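Design a sequence for this backbone.
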């Protein structure tokens, strides 16, 4: 399965979770993530679908194209404290958008999925986009991997927030997500701590979270 088709599978899963009645019922309640209500978190999750079309149609990058890992060298949220400006802005954006309510969000993400099925199929193999964190360029398929990772992580956050099972994403989705998280974890902690965390719990040195 291509990355573009795999991304659509992840996006469809996110749309199903956002539409869960448990999400609507808890919309204004605190979520499992500090500073997010359930509605704000649902909006942030849905954003991984909603802004993809705009990114594809956006202006060409004003900087050079970077690799997937180089992208994470440049994003400002990685490693930032919760009260730093970039993370505050992310939360405020989600909370502001949550004012539309759950029904409006469900409608918007459904419409976005319909558009993306055709739009992604039309893009050339070498398509480069400017991610929202830009101004650098990122291959479209690499950009979609970043969105798949966000969908996987925040689907778990949202499910935990409302007491429903975390969606079971297929192997085709999880493989690139785990590969990315593993590489980020090794870069953050080093190879030996990650090796021990995965294979020798008696010598594990603590968390190996990618973020």
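Sequence:
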């Amino acid at each position: 399965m291509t990355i573009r088709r795999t991304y659509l599978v992840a996006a469809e899963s996110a749309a199903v979770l956002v539409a869960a009645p448990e999400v609507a019922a808890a919309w204004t309640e605190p979520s499992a993530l500090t500073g997010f209500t359930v509605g704000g978190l649902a909006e942030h999750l849905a954003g991984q679908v909603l802004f993809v079309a705009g990114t594809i149609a956006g202006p060409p990058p004003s900087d050079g194209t970077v690799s997937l890992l180089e992208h994470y060298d440049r994003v400002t949220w990685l490693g930032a404290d919760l009260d730093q400006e970039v993370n505050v802005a992310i939360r405020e954006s989600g909370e502001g958008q949550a004012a539309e309510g759950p029904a409006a969000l469900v409608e918007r993400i459904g419409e976005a999925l319909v558009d993306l099925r055709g739009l992604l199929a039309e893009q050339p193999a070498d398509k480069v986009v400017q991610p929202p964190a830009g101004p650098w360029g990122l291959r479209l398929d690499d950009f979609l991997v970043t969105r798949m990772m966000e969908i996987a992580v925040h689907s778990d956050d949202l499910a935990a927030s409302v007491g429903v099972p975390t969606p079971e994403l297929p192997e085709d989705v999880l493989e690139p997500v785990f590969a990315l998280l593993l590489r980020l974890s090794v870069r953050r902690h080093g190879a030996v701590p990650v090796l021990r965390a995965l294979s020798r719990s008696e010598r594990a040195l603590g968390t190996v979270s990618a973020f």
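The beta strands are 65-66, 128-129, 137-139.
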